[in-house]
Amino acid sequence: MQDDLSRDTEEKPVTVKSVGTTHTLELNQGRFRWECDRGMLFTHGLPSVLFWLNPSLYRMLEPLVNEVGVPLFRLMVAQHSSMGTAEDYDTMVTVLGKTFEEGFLAWGDAVGMGGWGRFELPVFDKESRRAVVVVRNPWELEMQRGSTVRWGCPFLQGKIIGILSHALGVNCWADELLSAPDEAQASVEFRVYPSDRTLDAEMTRLRLAHHEEAKRKLEERTLELRQSEAQQRAILASLGEVVFTLDEGGRLTSYHVPKEMSAFHEAPERAIGRHVSDVMPQRIAAVLLGAMADLARDGAPRTVSYAREHGGGERFFSTKLSILREPVSGRGGVTVVERDVTDRVRAEQALTERLKVIERQQEMIQVLSTPIIQVWDGVLALPLVGVIDSRRAASITESLLREIVSTQARVAILDLTGVDVVDSAIADHFLRIVRAVELLGTTCLISGIRPAVAQTMTQLGTGIEKARTFGTMRAALMSVTRRRRA
């Protein structure tokens, strides 16, 4: 191990010193000092840090490249890396070498110790003011190795432009020629020549271009927003509904009023910014504010109804309130959509009136369908006509029993003269009526049974034949008269 170190030190002297937790390494032109107790590294006396080129440093720079774009990123880096090159040049020609070439290569060795790459100066012609600088394994290309986003070597380009402009005594530019991507030994060649191009001027030009592009995009976006706003206004106008928004304090922040609804609302330009209670009738404002309070509790949309006086009458409105959250500011509020539902309300009112008429008519029909006649004191007659279904049978039973109790009738006559058809269900209904009447202690007589009906009842075996029957209503009444005389 000592022999290897001796051979190395003969070719490349290495000095290592340690004092406590401070360690110093001098190798060629590189001077490194580690202060372990402070967790700090110094290179040439300046605080430094070690980064993995990839992924650490690449991941730190890539978002910036994507944000501003490769051209602007390259110029920004090159411009800032060119700052301080006057001091670099002065160190090269006064400290590191007797000539610029010697000092430049010594400087290259020093920064190469920090991982910048291997610097070569194959061409330096002060008379023609041209130079060629080659950097093998440059740190920027090593950082971008295997990556999809690449931006070349702007840091090294800025350094070369600044240093060579001082060395050649004229403003220079450096064209960058890169090796093939991910080549085993990457390299970059800078061809330096006098030029009117400067990094500052290029930055100004590119910033202006970016500004113009941003301005163009802003104008396009503004036009899109105006068109979208116009389209939304057209849609709102076609709906014929009042749409407005309120902030959390109840002040109007937007207000759309269709022409046909203007009679009920303030002009939007006078309403926006004012409190809803100052814009709308107090009764309606109170309803809206109450719905807003309910909405704030659970976020569920609310629908309220109210009427407005108009032209000596009333117009009816249904209004829906829902939560509004502005996407930019994040402020809360409420969206309110008011719809004129007068036609619907009036149609519902008309329908309600018709239903009431129908109910009254049904009551009259029911009375007519069960025409209970008090023939004499204690004698009731009920002539039946048409089809007797379960609903009508229940109505007949209820009406007849109620009348029997009311009049204390001793006899009830069911006249079936108007009943043409009887089936088992109808016969059962008759039997139930007879039983219910007799349970009240009233005699139930049946009259007017047609021959066909009598035959059907006998075939069905309903048991109604046990009831006292008469051929006609007259015969039944005469029987009652005889009983009364007896």
From TrEMBL:
Residues annotated as coiled-coil are 201-231
In its keyword annotation, does this UniProt entry include Phosphoprotein? yes
What keywords is this UniProt entry annotated with? Coiled coil, Phosphoprotein
> Which superkingdom heads the taxonomic lineage of this protein's source?
Bacteria
Q: Which Gene3D superfamilies match?
A: PAS domain, STAS domain
Domain STAS intervals? 369-480
Give the matching PANTHER family: RSBT ANTAGONIST PROTEIN RSBS-RELATED (PTHR33745), RSBT CO-ANTAGONIST PROTEIN RSBRC (PTHR33745:SF3)
Name of the protein: STAS domain-containing protein
Source species of the chain:
Sorangium cellulosum
